[in-house]
# Entry
Amino acid sequence: MFRDPDKNPKLFMRKIELKESPLHGVGVFATEPIAKHETFESCPVILFQYSMLRDYLEFHGTTHILSNYVFKWMDGSVANVLGYGMMYNHSNDNPNALYRMMTDDPRMEYTAKRDIKAGEEILIHYNRGRGDVAFDETGGHFHPGKLSFKQRCAPWTHAIDNADIT
# Structure
């Protein structure tokens, strides 16, 4: 379904594959050149309230694995992105792609910021211009100088702005 945009033109993946990454375990790589501004993946999302993850933490004393892979959505909920959407690695300095939330038919689109060569890892900036992400010794990311919910409880979360969590 995802590889054939004619069957569902809003959901697709083109010119990409998962491979071992020199940065963070597994990443998304271009299988052929991707042109600047080309959208190469459009993923469905599962939307839910962040309170579900907080409740899980309170009840079980540990985070649910889904808390490691959520994006803040526009209406205050969070999204798990399907397809390869949760597999893109981060770059502060040189992201070659960006993601865009499509709210009309909830999905996430990934688009090239510049030409991407075949074999090149596709990197996004997790905070989309809202400041750099620093990584701790475990590979978890955090915002320097702020101890957030995700630092205390979910050490590798695409999720929530520090200001949104109390």
Summary: The first strand starts at residue 12 and ends at 13. Residues 142-166 have pLDDT under 50 and may be disordered. DSSP finds two helices and twelve strands in the chain.
